[in-house]
Amino acid sequence: MEDLKKHFPALLSCTYLNTAANGLVSKPIIEWRRQHDLDLMQRASTFRDNHNVLLDQTRLTVSSFFGANLEEIALVPNVSFALNTILEGLPKKQKILLLKNDYPSVNWPVETRGFDVCYATIDENLEQNIEAAVNENKPDIFMFSIVQWLNGIKIDFEFLNRLKSYHSNLLLIADGTQFLGTENFNFAQNAIDIVGASAYKWLNAGFGNGFVMVKEATKRRIFPKTIGFNSAEKFESEASETKFIKHFEPGHLDTLNFGSLNQAILFQKNLGVDGLYYKIASLSQLAKTRFSEMGLLQNDTALRDNHSSIFNIRGEKATFEKLKTSNVICSLRGGGIRVSFHYYNTIDDLDELIQILK
């Protein structure tokens, strides 16, 4: 595989193990953004004449990349907006299952709206904990992150398939921000009913863009209230004619940011996603083995077979500062040091991290 440092100049000045906080943006995307703004500056209102072409192309790219129908996709500024829109459209008195200590943008919108909330624990027995909570509490909805932000624990998709087969009315709503862009995912073939993502992490698209995918059969259970003129099909449309998915796009969409999302996905496709994702999986497995040998992992990670490329390793602020001084970029999270490996990372990056930790 080609040397990716030429595409990501930040890699020339540091060892970047912090995609879980913010993915790097490539030079080709920055060059595309520069041309976009030059066009906007020079053409003014005529620039907008074709802006829907770019937005439609972005939806088409998302559709192809993640196996969703065009009518199931909305472009959103971030996943928090999408999740709040969904929750505002749910009937009252729904019982919702959450994971304790899941990402605040998943749990807070539920906890502050008066829903009947129950919880499952995130540990090495995550799936058993979820199944027990479902059997005990009989929730209407299970809302969760596919990959946990603090420690990288990834939910088992085969388990979700079984869960859905036993509880067909259980609505599965997922935040894929820490997952999508790290391995192949097909929405049509997955048990998840709704999944959204902010694209500034593993899709490397910069800030202000994301998407949500909602399966057709799910739309009869949600009644979104968000609406605006951009939701209309044409100038003479009535508010009542608004399509379900367009409630997630109430105002004018930012062509710079959503064009960046389109370019970021195409960038991955051009590099070859199978090779990229194999590299992520291989590096993740090697990192887990070496971290385990050094006693750096908690049981919730060490005892699970299938893990993401995010790790929370034992270490205090002094160790974090030492890494920072050595130009290894990572994050203090959850009482440890969070490191994350993307397709632009190498075994040399892992070796450097381990050498400093030793």
How is this structure best described in words?
It contains 11 helices and 12 strands. The protein has about 350 residues and is α/β, with parallel strands linked by helices. The chain has 2 domains: about 5-25 and about 270-355, Aspartate Aminotransferase, domain 1 (Alpha-Beta Complex), CATH 3.90.1150.10; about 40-270, Type I PLP-dependent aspartate aminotransferase-like (Major domain) (Aspartate Aminotransferase, domain 2). A 7-stranded mixed sheet has the order 2-8-7-6-5-3-4, sandwiched between helices. It is globular, with a radius of gyration of 21 Å. The model has no long low-confidence stretch (mean pLDDT about 95).
Give a short overview.
By secondary structure, the chain is α/β, with parallel strands linked by helices. It has eleven helices and twelve strands. The radius of gyration is 21 Å and the shape is globular.
